Amino acid sequence: MTSSITLPQHLRVEDANTSSNPYLLDQLSHCVQQESSYRADDYLGRWKDVAAVSKEERSAMCSWGFDIVEACSIDKEVAVIGISYLDRFMSVPCPRTRACLLSRREFQLAFIACFIIALKGRGGLSVAPEFICETICQGLYSQREIVAIEQDVLCALQWRLSGASPHEFIEGLCELLPAECSSSAKRTIVKVAKSNSEKLMGNYRLALQRPSRIAYAALVSAAEKISPRAFDPLDQMEWIEEIELILRLENARNTYANSFAPGHTKPQRNPAQLSLDTNDRGLDDSGYFDLDISSRSVAR
């Protein structure tokens, strides 16, 4: 298969700082093409008249997931993938997802199942059933309930678990950074962009976007924080244009193409788009476990 994307000029010159992967552009293009198979829709909006779950409660569960992986020293990408599994699962019209929308207890169980599937499938971890029931669920759910919901999630997703995450897009697109961009600037862009994408996943409306678009927004925001001395503005603009071409973003250039024109003032995007007001409260109604794990140890 031949890629329709022209190799950027700065990657045609052999350099130790550029990508060593000759198939990178083909891989990124393939991931973009496959995104339509991993879409989620506005399930809370579709069932807003009857849903017992709110966007804020979903956000609280996302925060809890990030707390768990951080306490266990697991890559936060696993939590991002688990959240994407949840949104995709809840987007499938079936009796089980409807039951999860009508019951906060069932919604919480679905989140746990998606989180565990991500730990196993993408985190490469072996998760003991007793650890799930006793430590993560604090005895609220039985092993039988957890196994059953895992099977339901896998069937609803048709075992399609390998779609590219925002983190993977970020890493791939940052391999296309020009050699003139300093190594420290590259590391900063990757780190900040990943953090941005994690915050975006807690925002229901933004989390439903394609992973490549989440990665794009996270990268643009991260690049703007880099000093012009470390990453020349013209190089930055060219890199962003290359990303738009690869990700097939038709309207993105209208927003960012003139960001570095002389005398131009960068558009001030709403901070809520890339930062969230963290909802630290747990789902502490009767029958819900405490989401605050800071005061207890979590077995690895």
Describe the SSE topology.
Blueprint: H1 24-34, H2 43-46, H3 55-71, H4 77-90, H5 95-102, H6 104-121, H7 129-136, H8 143-156, H9 166-174, H10 183-201, H11 204-207, H12 211-223, H13 233-247, H14 252-256
Helix pairs in contact: 3-4, 4-6, 4-10, 5-6, 6-8, 9-10, 9-12, 10-12, 12-13
How would you describe what is shown here?
With 300 residues, this protein is mainly α. The protein is 53% helix and 0% strand. It is built from 14 helices and no strands. The radius of gyration is 20 Å and the shape is elongated.
Following the backbone from N to C, one meets helices and strands in this order, namely HHHHHHHHHHHHHH
What is the gyration radius calculated from CA atoms? 20 Å
N/C terminus separation: 43 Å
Task: Provide mean pLDDT, rounded.
Answer: 79
- Shape, principal axes of CA atoms: elongated
Descriptive labels:
300 residues; mainly alpha; 14 helices; elongated; disordered C terminus
